Amino acid sequence: MNGLPTVLARRTEAGGTELELRVEEDNSWFEGHFPGHPILPGVAQIAWAVYYAAELYAGTPTQPGLEQVKFKRPILPGAQLMLRLTRAADGARLRYEYRDAEQSYASGVLDFRRRA
Q: Which is nearest to 62 in space by CA: 51, 74, 73?
């Protein structure tokens, strides 16, 4: 997938995986969104969560349904964030959250039982 952030670190625990990401200032997702005040589009945030879920959990579909999607703060060029992926016990749903040490930027649930 083109336009991915740089993965600085990866930690896997029993409950899920945490990726430390840096969103490069020249990331292609910023082009045209918005000139002079670039922010990372929500569709990119969801696409990244789906991409890393498929990479980490083999066999995960790449077109899940979406639930509880929230965009709380804009992600700006140069941001360094954590992407937390927490898989439900049944493996059919996965919660994602972009955050730094102090605040949450976006979150949602990917539902692999139904397609978007």
A: 51
Provide the domain limits for residue 53: 6-115
As a whole number of angstroms, the distance between CA 59 and CA 56 comes to 9
Residue 106 lies in a domain: yes
| pLDDT tens sequence across 62-74 | 678 898 999 999 9
* CA 41 from centroid of its chain's CA atoms: 11
pTM of the model: 0.90
Query: Is 106:45 a contact under the CB 8 Å cutoff?
Result: yes
Q: What token pair was written down for 67?
A: 């639930």
Reading the block at residue 90, the tokens are 């049944």
Q: Is 1 part of any domain?
A: no
Report the C-alpha gap between 70 and 58 in whole angstroms.
26
CATH number at residue 82: 3.10.129.10
For residues 58 and 5, give the distance between their C-alpha atoms in angstroms, rounded to a whole number: 21
Residue with tokens 């945030």: 45
**Count of structural domains, the chain:** 1
- Considering only CA atoms, which of 96, 67, 69, 101 is closest in space to residue 84? 96
